[in-house]
Amino acid sequence: MTLLRLEGVTVRFGDRAVVDAVDLEVAEHETVCVLGPSGSGKSTLLRVVAGLQPPSAGRVLLGGADQAGVPVHRRGVGLMFQDHQLFPHRDVGGNVAFGLRVRGSAKPEYEERVARLLDLVGLPGAQGRAVASLSGGEQQRVALARALAPSPRLLMLDEPLGQLDRGLRERLVVELQGLFSRLGTTVLAVTHDQGEAFALADRVVVMRDGRIAQAGTPLEVWQRPASEFVARFLGFENVVPATVSGGAAATPWGKVPVPAGSPEGERRLLVRPAGVVLCGAGLDCVVESRTFRGTHVTLSLRPEAGPVLEAECALAAAPAPGDRVAVAFTPSEVVVLPAA
Ligand SMILES: Nc1ncnc2c1ncn2[C@@H]1O[C@H](COP(=O)(O)OP(=O)(O)OP(=O)(O)O)[C@@H](O)[C@H]1O
């Protein structure tokens, strides 16, 4: 069932639409991550759903009910923003209990719930600790427990792990995912970090200039970016102009095979690095640099023609900078994109 529905939501500041006719649905128990570069309108979209920003046009429906005129505290949404989330002068328990006390819960009732939430976020018994004594990751968990405390029907996260270092972020993303699925929480999160979005979300929504550039499962978006913008935003660099016909594309790198059924004509072409394969004969390149990625190596190759190519290869097979190599292209890793 649909919990949240946005219909043609537009927010204008002056004559600029920073959110532009956005339609979006979030199903119950679903985690949707809105992803996009800085300034694409992600936070503004969240603020509209929360009731912190009135839309200039369009409707926000929660559980089928139009939220026009419904104030923030009556929408039943939980909010967790990236900074200054915690009250520094309250202890951990006081922070988590805040929303419950405001709602008028009795002390024994909320104390039990606070204890259960702190267990859930991996901080059992931390009620009496001072906020200042917590690490960044612990503070993030307390903020999460506080947002979850009043059992919001929709939890909204704005750059939830933005301040944390990568290792901690990766661990917390996995924990959050488990927690949301155990609790059956419906989540709308915004982030500019594609790794975070792809790890957390059932569905990702990529925004560009206030509009939805693409929506789909992480796998769909990753495998079939809808445009050069989305491809580049995901970090893919191998995008060139191409003329597609008869199962191949004429590109600055020469002929590149494309998947069967690809659209023909003047297009843009994405070759994922995994589809640039070192082989005995093909496009001659010089290795410019290589970066170890743990499970594989990313190579930056200077081809005899066309722009620099990014390739991936196994650790053991990695050539060194300055080496001459030849590459061929694997059609399953090639995506024909619309012309720019
Ligand atoms: N109250 C406001 N008045 C005028 N312009 C605003 C206001 N709030 C936001 N904007 C502008 O709207 C655009 C979108 O802002 P928003 O914060 O929604 O983007 P974002 O995608 O969340 O970016 P970031 O990732 O940097 O937080 C920005 O250009 C911003 O400057």
UniProtKB/TrEMBL annotation:
Listed Gene3D superfamilies: P-loop containing nucleotide triphosphate hydrolases
Keywords, alphabetical: ATP-binding, Nucleotide-binding, Transport
Residue ranges constituting the ABC transporter domain according to the UniProt record: 4-234
Keyword Nucleotidyltransferase: no
UniProt-listed Pfam families: ABC_tran, TOBE_2
Gene Ontology molecular function: ATP binding
Cited PANTHER family: SPERMIDINE/PUTRESCINE IMPORT ATP-BINDING PROTEIN POTA, SPERMIDINE_PUTRESCINE IMPORT ATP-BINDING PROTEIN POTA
Listed name of the protein: ABC transporter ATP-binding protein
Organism: Streptomyces polychromogenes
